[in-house]
Amino acid sequence: MRQHYDISAVRKAFPAAEHVVYLDSGFQTPLSRPVKEAFERFLSEGFETAGPKQVWLNRLEETRAKVADFLGVKPHEIAFTKNTSESMNIAANALPLRAGDKVLMIQGDHPNNAYAFLNLRKKGVEIVFIPMTEVIDAESFRPHIDERTRAISMSHVTFHAGHRFDVESVGELCAQHSLYFVVDVMQGIGVVPIDAKTMKATFIGSGTHKGLLVPQGLGLLYWDATRTELEPAYLAAASLADPPLDFIARPDNMALPATAGRFELGNFNLPAVQALGAAIDLINQIGIEKIQQHCFELGDYLIERLDRLDVGLVGPRDRQHRAPHIYVIALPAADWLDYFTQNGIRVSPERDGIRVSLGMFNTIEDIDRLIEAIRARNAPTTQARTAVLSKLG
Ligand SMILES: Cc1ncc(COP(=O)(O)O)c(C=O)c1O
C-alpha cells in the first residue's frame, strides 16, 4: 500500500488509536491532539479572562469560512447548528411545502433524515420512499417524480452498509424538475470530498462528530443563498438582519438577512466550533483527497482479506458505489460484537453485520488485527469444512 501521507505522525495525534484497534469512526471520532488543544485553549481563556466572547465570535467566523471553503461555498451560506437532525429539520421546515406536495426519500435511509420529513405529514405533505438499492442515482428517482413532487431528501453515504449514492446526478435531476434537494452528508464528510455546488443541493446537513473529528453537539447547515424564499421556522434575535441593539424586540423589523444566519438561533457551541476549526486545519494539512485514497486502499485490502476467508461484505464492493471508509462485514453482530470488544477491536453492530469504519489514522496493521481475529474464531469451522470436503473426496 502506498503512503499518501505520514501516517505514523497522524496516528500519534490520535492516542486512543494506540490503545485499541479503533475501527469505529463512523460511530464517533476518537479525539485528536489539535482538537483537544483547541478545547483547552477555550477553557483556559474562560478561566483566565472570564470569557473573551468577541474573540470567540471572531474565531467562529474564521471557522465558518473554513467550513465554507471545505464545501466549496461562501461563508454566508453556512449556519452552525446542533447536529444533523437539527439541520435536516431546519431544512424540511424551511421548504414551502403544502398539503398534497410530495417529498421523495429512500427506504431505510437514516431515521434522523426521515423523521424530519415524516413530521411534515401533519401538514398533509406526502413522503414517498423509493426502494434502497445498491446504486441510487437520478434514474432511481426519475420514475417517481410527478406534478406533485417538490423535493428529494437523501443521505450521501449510508451508515449501515457504506453505499455512496450518486448525489450529483440526483442534484441534476432536481435542477431539471425544479425540485428542492436536501442532502445529509454526515457519514461521508471529512473523508469524501464534498462540493455543494456540483451536488446542486438546496440544503446540506451534517453533524461534526465523525469525519470532522469533534465531539457531539455541533452541526452544520449549508443553504443555497440564492433560495431567498426559504425562511426559518424558528426565529431569534440572531436570525434577523437587524437585531435590536437595545434588546427590545421590534415587531415592525423582522427582516431576514441574506445569509444562512437566518437559520441560527441564540448562542453557539463556541468550544466545539473552535475545535472544528482545528480539525479542518488538520484535514487540510493532510488533504481530503489523500485521506479518501488512504481509506479506499485500506478498504481494498480489507475486502481482499475477507474474500480469502470467505466472509461476505454486505454493501457495495466497487469504488464507484462504495464509501471509502465504511464496510459492513456479514457476521451476525449478536455473535461477534462482544468477541471483537474482548479482543481490543472497536467496531459497531449494524443491521446486517459488523460495521468497520475507517479514519485517517488507521493502518494496514489495524485491518490485519481484525482479520486475524475473524480467522482465529472461524478456524475450527474452516477445519471442519476442509474435513467434510476431504471426506466427500
Ligand atoms: C447519515 C447519518 N445522518 C445522521 C446521523 C446522526 O444524526 P445526528 O447528528 O443528529 O446525531 C448519522 C449517524 O450518527 C448518520 O450516519
UniProtKB/TrEMBL annotation:
The keyword Lyase applies. Signal peptide: none annotated. Residues 21-370 form the Aminotransferase class V domain. Keywords: Lyase, Pyridoxal phosphate. Pfam families: Aminotran_5 (PF00266). The keyword Lyase applies. InterPro entries: Aminotrans_V_dom, PyrdxlP-dep_Trfase, PyrdxlP-dep_Trfase_major, PyrdxlP-dep_Trfase_small. One of its GO terms (molecular function) is lyase activity. This is Selenocysteine lyase/cysteine desulfurase. It comes from Bradyrhizobium macuxiense.
